[in-house]
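dumping this here so i dont lose it
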């Protein structure tokens, strides 16, 4: 994910990194070159004049803009829901750490083991969502008797939550309401896990994506024939601008509908995982903490 401060308006016009221009450049170039060819031939193909007018493109353009706007809204809803779920993971990790430190009568190593288990859950969730190898983080955070079982598991975050649940009696909580209080936050972590899995395993309906994709491309490739008799030599410029709008909106929706990936506009799971680890380890009183994954203007994975 790209994180920047507000850029000057001129730099916003010229910025490349973090935009979707690189993704759509080939098709944008193809439509512009087609528009140049149509302008040079005055819309004649194989001796036949393609007699299109602006009217059908006006009507279709409005409908296409509505469809693209709806799809981008749905994609952004998925992205924002994913971000709220990770915000809930942060809140529950802090709450669990605070309660273990203030309510439990266990010794410091046992408290640390529980909190490190929470951190391991966070990293395991990130790796599961990105389908990457969690072994290094789990080896670093989990005790040896947990590590092998968790690494061998298919759904590692769920196994870690089960192990944390088994630890609750060993924390020597003073009364049952305090035990319930910790279990509530473990259950909330489980809800966040399920929510993230639901988003990751339920893509946008493929047929809907195909309809919008085909319509945007057919519109852009036919548009020069409808403009050439009206705007003449300005046809390639207008086609490039309109095509950029439609292609960019479609590409952005495609990118953010899977918010757990590593594209420029996906969630910065690496940065959030490190931040959660840092904040709970600070609550333990530790000072040897991981460096924050923060670099303005750069990609945060």
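and the seq i came up w/
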């Amino acid at each position: 994910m790209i994180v920047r401060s507000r850029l000057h308006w001129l730099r916003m016009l010229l910025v490349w990194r973090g935009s979707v221009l690189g993704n759509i450049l080939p098709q944008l170039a193809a439509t512009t070159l087609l528009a140049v060819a149509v302008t040079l031939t005055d819309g004649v193909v194989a001796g036949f004049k393609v007699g299109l007018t602006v009217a059908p493109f006006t009507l279709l353009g409005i409908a296409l803009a509505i469809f693209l706007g709806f799809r981008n809204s749905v994609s952004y809803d998925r992205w924002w829901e994913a971000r709220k779920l990770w915000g809930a993971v942060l809140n529950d990790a802090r709450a669990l750490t605070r309660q273990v430190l203030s309510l439990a009568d266990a010794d410091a190593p046992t408290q640390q083991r529980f909190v490190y288990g929470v951190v391991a859950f966070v990293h395991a969730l990130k790796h599961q969502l990105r389908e990457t190898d969690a072994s290094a983080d789990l080896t670093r955070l989990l005790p040896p008797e947990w590590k092998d079982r968790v690494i061998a598991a298919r759904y590692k975050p769920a196994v870690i939550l089960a192990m944390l649940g088994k630890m609750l009696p060993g924390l020597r909580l003073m009364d049952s309401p305090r035990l319930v209080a910790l279990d509530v936050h473990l259950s909330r972590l489980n809800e966040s896990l399920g929510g993230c899995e639901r988003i990751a395993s339920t893509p946008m309906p493929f047929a809907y994506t195909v309809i919008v994709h085909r319509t945007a491309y057919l519109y852009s490739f036919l548009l020069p024939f409808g403009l050439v008799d009206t705007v003449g030599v300005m046809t390639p410029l207008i086609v490039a601008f309109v095509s950029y709008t439609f292609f960019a909106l479609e590409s952005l929706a495609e990118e953010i509908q899977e918010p757990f990936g590593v594209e420029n506009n996906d969630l910065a799971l690496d940065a959030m995982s490190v931040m959660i680890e840092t904040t709970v380890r600070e609550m333990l009183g530790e000072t040897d903490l991981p460096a924050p994954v923060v670099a303005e203007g750069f990609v945060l994975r």
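The chain has a mean pLDDT of 88.
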